[in-house]
C-alpha cells in the first residue's frame, strides 16, 4: 500500500477509537506518533534492503508479526514509563495497521504468497522485483492502478474526517513553525 493509504486507514481507525474511548477527536502528539507508526516498517525495511543491502527484502524485518509482537509491547511500555501512554498506543496502532494494510488484493483471490512477509523469517518469501536503490524504488516500484486510486479515495475520506474532527495537530504544527522562524530570525 502507498504511504497515504496506510495513513488514511490508520487515521480512520484511530479517530474511531478515541471517540469510543474518550468521546473526543485525536490529539496532536498521539496523532504524530500514529503517522510515524504508519510509515515505520517502510522507513526501516526498505532503506535497509534497497540502499544498504542488510535485509533480503523491502517487507521483512519490521513487517514481520514476530518482530511486531516484541516491538509493540516494548514501545508501549516505554511510552507508559514516560507517562505518554496514548502516544505509545497511537504508534502501535499505526504500526500494526501498516502490517495488515500491506496485504495485497491478490491474497483475497487465494494467492497467499502476498502475506508471507508477516511470518518472516520463518516462511520463504516470494522473489522481489530487483530494485536499484531507494530512489529507483520510489520512481519505479509503485504503479497507478485501480487499487492505488482506491487508496487515494481513502485518503480523501480520511482528510475530510480529519477536517471535521477539528484538524487535530494543525494548530500545534503552525505554532512549532512560528517558534522555529522566531528562533532562526533571532
Ligand atoms: Zn510496508
Automatic annotation (TrEMBL):
InterPro entries recorded: YdjM-like
Naturally occurring in which organism (per UniProt): Halosolutus amylolyticus
Keyword DNA repair: no
Keywords for this protein: Hydrolase, Membrane, Transmembrane, Transmembrane helix
Name of the molecule in the record: Metal-dependent hydrolase
GO MF annotation terms: hydrolase activity
Pfam families listed in its UniProt record: YdjM
Record field: transmembrane: 61-80, 92-120, 140-163
